[in-house]
Each structure stands twice: as structure tokens, then as C-alpha cells.
Design goal:
The complex is a heterodimer.
Chain A: E1 4-6, E2 10-13, E3 19-25, E4 31-38, E5 42-49, E6 56-57, E7 64-70, E8 73-78, E9 87-94, E10 104-105, E11 109-113
Parallel strand pairs in A: 2-11
Antiparallel strand pairs in A: 1-3, 3-8, 4-5, 4-9, 5-6, 7-8, 9-10, 9-11
Chain B: E1 4-5, E2 10-14, E3 19-25, E4 32-38, E5 45-51, E6 56-59, E7 62-67, E8 72-77, E9 86-93, E10 102-103, E11 107-112
Parallel strand pairs in B: 2-11
Antiparallel strand pairs in B: 1-3, 3-8, 4-5, 4-9, 6-7, 7-8, 9-10, 9-11
Chain lengths: 114, 113
């Protein structure tokens, strides 16, 4: 079974802080993703990565950056946290080998910015 | 611009009856569609998918129907069970397969005993 682990389930930070969200997958997947989930908006893609040190912007990258130094780990960075970044953050991974490979998600990090 | 839309935020169905969740999309380049199920405090889990070359895919109690001309897909759950109570997201992807997904807003399904 694919396991995607997000380092924190709940996190509370202050406005202006630099925030790191960590995600690790154990299936040697090449693709990794960061989403945020907000009520009425579904899941929106922030950044994704096809390989180590590779990254591409998703639909809402403003205010975020990412790091992928190792294949199994994908970090989301809030450079200067703001209250509108309070949200549920979800990490996912997938194998690009065949078109029907679904993304596997972690359990999420609920981040509150005060 | 919401390319994938789930217009019903919530749906309530009696146990044993059929649940039908709907999803509309606008981008004709989408060629692969997936449904995910999400319980509170857990990540979404993959449920069922369909390629654009098919119009139906079935897996046990779950069937997904695709109407390309109407740009519409639906998920049927028969019979509905209490454990099916969750939020359901539809998602679509283009020629890159499941590598980049566009999600709908989600529909909260409640199965009443």
C-alpha cells in the first residue's frame, strides 16, 4: 500500500512567519503534488514536481515555494505566512507509468495563521 | 474559472437506495476522469475512474457514466450504505493522464438509516 505521510496534522503559526510543510512517500513515485482544500472550492493545485529538483507551478502558486531534494520528500514553504493561507493542505504522489495511475494522498495538515 | 463543477454541495439519500453524484466539465481536452472519496480528517482516496474512450465503468457498487457530448459524468452508488457518507470529489486530467488533476468543489453525501 502506498503511504504518503505529512509531518503535522495541525499547525498554528503567526502572520509573517516562514512555514514548512513536509511530505514523504514510500513508493518511489516520481510525481508529487501540493494542494490546498477550502470549503466550496475543492482541491486546488499549488505546485507539483515530476522529479528531484524539478518543480512546476500549479493554479495558485502565489505566496508559496517548494523544494524536492530527494525523490521521497516534497516540502511546501510559505515564505511569509498570511491569514488567507489558513487552509487544509494535502500532499499527493503518483506513478506516471500508466495513464490510469491515481494520485495517493496524505491525511492533510490543517494550518491556521493567526 | 471553474473547469470542473459539482453543482450540488450536498446530497442526502436513504440507506439501500441509489446515490447519484454529478459533475460537469468545460474543457474538451480532458480525457480521463476520476472520483475520490474523503472522510473528515483523512486524505482523499481514489474510488473509480473512466477514460474518455468509454462511457461506463463499473466496480462493485460503484458505476461511473461519462457523456462526452454533454461534458457530464456521474457516479452511481447502489445500494447506498452508511459508510458511503463522505465528501466526493470528481477530477479530470488531460493528455498527461493522472499527472495533473483539476478537481470539482465536492459533494457531501449523507446516507440516512
Amino acid at each position: 500500500d502506498v503511504k504518503v505521510t505529512q509531518s503535522s496534522r495541525y499547525l498554528v503559526k503567526r502572520t509573517g512567519e516562514k512555514v514548512f510543510l513536509e511530505c514523504v512517500q514510500d513508493m518511489d513515485h516520481e510525481n508529487m503534488f501540493w494542494y490546498r482544500q477550502d470549503p466550496g472550492l475543492g482541491l486546488r493545485l499549488i505546485y507539483f514536481s515530476y522529479d528531484v529538483k524539478m518543480k512546476e507551478k500549479g493554479d495558485i502558486p502565489e505566496g508559496y515555494s517548494v523544494s524536492r531534494e530527494k525523490k521521497e520528500r516534497f516540502s511546501l514553504i510559505l515564505e511569509s505566512a498570511s491569514t488567507n493561507q489558513t487552509s487544509m493542505y494535502l500532499c499527493a504522489s503518483s506513478d506516471p507509468g500508466t495513464v490510469d495511475q491515481p494520485q495517493h494522498f496524505g491525511d492533510g495538515t490543517r494550518l491556521s495563521i493567526l | 474559472d471553474q473547469q470542473v463543477k459539482q453543482n450540488s454541495p450536498s446530497l442526502s439519500v436513504q440507506e439501500g437506495r441509489i446515490s447519484i453524484l454529478n459533475c460537469d466539465y468545460t474543457n474538451s481536452m480532458f480525457d480521463y476522469f476520476l472520483w475520490y472519496k474523503k472522510y473528515p480528517a483523512e486524505g482523499p482516496t481514489f474510488l473509480i475512474s473512466i477514460s474518455s474512450i468509454k462511457d461506463k465503468n463499473e466496480d462493485g457498487r460503484f458505476t461511473v457514466f461519462l457523456n462526452k457530448s454533454a461534458k457530464h459524468l456521474s457516479l452511481h452508488i447502489v445500494p447506498s450504505q452508511p459508510g458511503d457518507s463522505a465528501v466526493y470529489f470528481c477530477a479530470a486530467s488531460g493528455i498527461q493522464g493522472a499527472q495533473k488533476l483539476v478537481f470539482g468543489q465536492g459533494t457531501r453525501l449523507t446516507i440516512n438509516p
